[in-house]
Amino acid sequence: MSDGIILCDVAPRDGIQNEKIMLSSAQKLELIRRLAAAGMPWIEVASFASPKWVPQMADAEEVFRAASQIPGIRPIVLVLNDRGYDRAVAAGAHYIRLVVASTDTMNQKNANALPEVTMAAYRPIFERARRDNVELTGTIATSFGCPFEGAVDPDRVLRLAAQFIEAGAAEVDFADTVGMAVPPQIERILMRARKEFPGVRIGIHVHNTRNLGLANAYAAVRAGADVLDASTGGAGGCPFAPKATGNIPMDDLVFMLEGMGIKTGVDLDKLVATSRWFEELLEHPLPAMLPKAGPCWDSPPPLA
Length: 304
Fold this sequence. Notes:
By secondary structure, this protein is α/β, with parallel strands linked by helices. The chain has one domain (6-293): Aldolase class I (TIM Barrel, Alpha-Beta Barrel), CATH 3.20.20. The protein has 11 helices and 8 strands. It has helices at 25-37, 60-67, 82-91, 104-111, 115-132, 154-167, 183-196, 213-222, 250-259, 268-282, 290-293, and strands at 6-9, 42-47, 74-79, 95-101, 135-141, 171-176, 201-206, 227-230. The protein is globular and about 50 Å long. The two termini are 17 Å apart.
C-alpha cells in the first residue's frame, strides 16, 4: 500500500456529461475552482469529444483555457480521436487521456470503431505528443466487464495496456465503466500490471453501479494503485452505457483514505461544502454519503 496516492477528480467531465441540465462555462469553472481550493491535485476538466454526441462538453476550449490558469492543479482532458487531440493541443493541453474500450461493442458505441482500429489511430497521436510536449495516459474502458458483452478476458485488457505503454504512455488506467468489478478482480489486474509494467503509473477508475465502488477502491489502494479517480458527490455516468451511474464519491473516498492514515492533502470540509453546492447546482440528490452524515472526527482516528 502506497502513501503516495494521487487523487483525480473527474466531476467537471465525467460528473456532468450525463446530466440533463446544461451547465454554463462559468458554473463548470466555479466547480473546478472550488475543487482546487479544497486541495484537489489533479482535475479532469473537460472532454474534447464531439458536441453532437456529448453536448455538455461543447465549451471544452473555453473551460480548459480558464482552468489552466488556476494554480496548483494538473488540468487533464479526455480525447477519443485525432480531431479531439488537435483541439486539445490547440487549447494548450499538456495532459491528455486517450480512451479505448476493451470490447468490440462498447468501443463501437463509444468511438464508432473496433478497439484495434482505435489503437491504430492513436499511433500518430503518440508520435505527435512527443513533439508537442504532451503526456498521454491510456485509459481502458470496460476493463472488468461490459454491459453488452459481459465478462472481459483480463489478457485482452492487459494486451491493450501493453500497446499503450509501448507507444509511450506515462500512465495506464483500468476503468470499471459500469461498475461490474469485485475487489479480487481489481487486485489481480493491478498485481499483473505491476509485474508486467514496472515504472509505469497505474490508475483505477471505478463506478458505483452495484455499490462496490469503495470496496474496489480499497482493493486498488491495497494492491498499490498510483492514481484513483473519483467524482465529487458521486456524480456522473456514461452516455453510451446503459444504467451507468457515477464514479465513487470523492468525498467518501477521501474520508476513507484519511481514516486509513493516507494523507491526501485535501481539505475535507471544503470538499464536502463543494459537494453540497454541486448537488444544488444539478438540482437532484447526489449519492455521496459524507455530505449527508458529516465527518465524525477532527483528525483521523489512531489505527490499532
